[in-house]
Amino acid sequence: MAYPPNQPDPNEPNRRLYNPYQDLQVPIQNLYKLPTSPEFLFQEEAIAQRRSWGENLTYYTGISYLAGAVAGAGIGFVEGVKASEPGDTLKLRINRVLNGSGHTGRKFGNRAGVIGLMYAGLESGMVSLRDTDDVINSVAAGLGTGVLYKAAAGVRSAAVAGAIGGVVVGVAVTGKQMLRRYVPI
């Protein structure tokens, strides 16, 4: 039995009907049935509430690079403004600010991107190794990232950086859980 246009089919409750020609006043009876929930190729993907390792790698690296580049550009902006001299023209002052922002932003962005890349790799490795997704994986990945990032500077520097990485990730994970619990979104 065919249902009239723009009327939902009662046999398919998870579908909404869409007619791309409804605003054009074109009499067409072909309706497209679009899913309202995410579609997964395998049932295991629907159960997991986590990004894949590749998505994690891309996400953490990109977010870290962007945050580092923005912070570095801000620092470079301030350095460029401070470096201007009383006799400089407006063009020269703008050039100093742009050069300082670009140089420092690129430097900070690259460093933060590498840290994000190492963190994502270590966290994904911990999840696959332990076969669970919990706070321990995140904190251990932060600790390992700090150690790896400063390993060439010596044992003491690596230990301090590892402790800082573990504490920062622990605070971030705790803050995220507090936000979820106490802030209604």
UniProtKB/TrEMBL annotation:
Q: What is this protein called?
A: Mitochondrial import inner membrane translocase subunit TIM23
Transmembrane as a keyword of this entry, yes or no, is: yes
Give the GO biological process terms. Answer: protein import into mitochondrial matrix
Per its UniProt record, what InterPro entries does this chain match?
Answer: Tim23-like
Query: What is the superkingdom listed in this entry's lineage?
Result: Eukaryota
What sections of the protein cross the membrane? none
Pfam families linked to this entry:
Tim17
UniProt-recorded Gene Ontology molecular function terms: protein transmembrane transporter activity
This protein's record includes keyword Transport: no
For this record, an example GO cellular component is: TIM23 mitochondrial import inner membrane translocase complex
Where does the protein end up? Membrane
Any idea which UniProt keywords this protein has?
Answer: Membrane, Transmembrane, Transmembrane helix
Principal place where this protein is found? membrane
Q: How does it sit in the membrane?
A: Multi-pass membrane protein
